[in-house]
Amino acid sequence: MKQIEEIAQTTAKFLLQVKAIKLNNNEPFTWASGRKSPIYCDNRVTLSYPEIRTYIRQRLVDVITEKFGDFDVIAGVATGGIPQGVLVAQDLGKPFVYVRPEEKKHGLTNQIEGYIREGQTVVVVEDLVSTGKSSLVAVKALRDHGCRVKGMVAIFTYGLKVSEEAFAKENVDLTTLTNYDSLIKVAIDEEYISEEDQFSLKKWRKDPEKWSEDHLNK
C-alpha cells in the first residue's frame, strides 16, 4: 500500500479542493448539536467527482485488504457510509448491508438492512468520525446481531479525544485515510488558511466545547 502520510495528504487535498471540507474561523458553522465549529465536513460531495471517488474507494479497499484480510460482509453506517460502503463492497466482491441509527418504527423494524447472519465477520465503512457516537452505535447493532466486527475504516476523522477514548473503550480498530492534523498541514501549504487561522483551528480541536462557547458569546 502507498505510504500512509502520502495518502493522508492526497486525500486532504481532494477534500479541500472540492469543498467537502470547509474551514472558516470568522463565520463558524453550526453543527446539528448546536455547537459552533470552524470546520464542516460533508464527504458525500466526493461522490460527484469520479476521479476523487475512485481514489477514495481504492484507498479504502487497500486499507481493508492489508489490515483485515479475509472477512464476510461490508457494513455501511447510515447515511454517509452507505455509498462509500457500496463502492468498496462492489470492488471487493463482498455482500453489503447498512446500519441505521436505530430500528425503524414501522414495517420489519430493522436496524440492519440487508442479509447478514450470526457469526459472520464484518468490516464497517464510515465516511467521517467526529465524536464516534453514531459509528459505535452501528458496531453495537452488528455485535448484538451476533457478528464479529473486525474493524472500521473511514475517510476522515477530527481526531477528537472523546472519539479516541470511545473507540478504545469499545475495542474497535479504526483506520482513516486522512485526519485533522494532515488536513491543517495541507490547508497551510496550499494557502487555504493563514497562520492565525491555524492557531484557532488547533484551539478548537483541543477543546471544541469551549471554542464553541467563546464564539456563541461574541
Description of the structure:
The structure is a single chain. The protein has 218 residues and is of the alpha/beta class. It has one domain (4-216): 3-Layer(aba) Sandwich (Rossmann fold), CATH 3.40.50. 44% of the residues lie in helices and 21% in strands. It is built from eight helices and ten strands. Strands 7-6-5-8-9-10 form a six-stranded mixed beta sheet, sandwiched between helices. Strands 1-4 form a two-stranded antiparallel sheet. Strands 2-3 form a two-stranded antiparallel sheet. Helix 2 packs across helix 3 and helix 7 packs across helix 8 (208-216). The longest helix is centred in the first third of the chain and has 19 residues, at 50-68. It is globular, with a radius of gyration of 18 Å. The termini are far apart. The mean pLDDT is 93.
